[in-house]
Amino acid sequence: MSFEMQDLVDRLYAALGTPVTLTDRQDRMLAYSSQPLDKTDKVRQQSVLGRHSDEATRPVNDFARHVQSTTRLPADPAAGRLERVIVPLRTQGHIAGLLYLIDPDRRVTDEALERFADEFEAVARQIELVRMPRSTSQAAVRSLLSTNADERQIAVEELKGCLGSPADRPSRTVVLAPPGRDHSMPFWSRVFGARSPWSEIDGLYVYLVTEDLDPDGVASRVRFAGGSGAVSGVAIGIGGSSPGLAEAYLSYRTALRALQLAKSGLTGSNVAAWDTMGSWRTLLSLDRSAAEASIDPRVRLLVASEDGTLLRMLRSYLEREKDNDELATEFHMHRTTLYARFRRLQDKYGLSWEHPEDRLATILGLRITLLYAGS
């Protein structure tokens, strides 16, 4: 029985004096408060003792299946049933569980329940996590990487069992962006380890890797898998290491940033690891709108006016990725023509790439523009 579930029913009983039970949508008993004989009824006693639906409890359960909001179920003396309040617990728009509060004295009001709204939602999320089989831990991974701290903490407890290790075991998040919907999850589970929990989030496949955490080791496994052709067209971002499951969401954030670089093709690889991305980390720590707003006005005009091929050629030139003869050959022009074109660009946009500040401003603007091209 989960502590948070038990804590909720105990707190409700202490505050309202009404015996409480909590079930999931399949009528399985999850937690119950103190049940004094003078405050309960035959139906409640049977549900607690039996912990499942029978002839006495079935009418209540059948009624509850149609409940969409807090509802009173009238008493039925012939069936030995006192009046009770049924409270559905929702998460992400659907009902995960139901609270039953025996309340013949009508102590339970909407105002009284409102004080427990946050706890209702937290327990609903926990019910969803407990409901899933541990071998299919996608819901727990999604919760672990969410922006909600309470949801993450619940997921940590659930995933400890999936990983078979303590919550403080280091991990690294790997995010894959497949070109279509036909990529085999069993294949990637072999690459990252059968015990690596995974989930699908916003069309991306997300793995928590807990073995061989060195980013080069993870990247090597991915590239080795490429021999089968399985990574063709797949962009892969490898996040920074997190000291424990509770911090895995930070690794996930860096994995998403690394994925953006991998998708851009600017490094010549479809795999990018946060730990080895160098100065790209600084640019990707800004959100897209902030990064684009930071571009020098002259460079912003340049990238808006010139074609993508010229921008890629200019970035290679300014960052000295290749010598000028090699660059001219790649873009099918004479070296003199290359220099002349770059001189015209400087004159046209008021830039001087001999000046370190102008050169850096142009490199940053080109990187930001090409990083998000096509996104």
TrEMBL record:
Domain CdaR GGDEF-like per the UniProt entry, residue ranges: 163-261
InterPro entries according to UniProt: CdaR-like_regulators, CdaR_GGDEF, PucR_C-HTH_dom, PucR_C-HTH_sf
Residue intervals of the PucR C-terminal helix-turn-helix domain: 310-368
Record-linked Gene3D superfamilies: PucR C-terminal helix-turn-helix domain (1.10.10.2840)
Family from the record: Belongs to the CdaR family.
Protein name: PucR C-terminal helix-turn-helix domain-containing protein
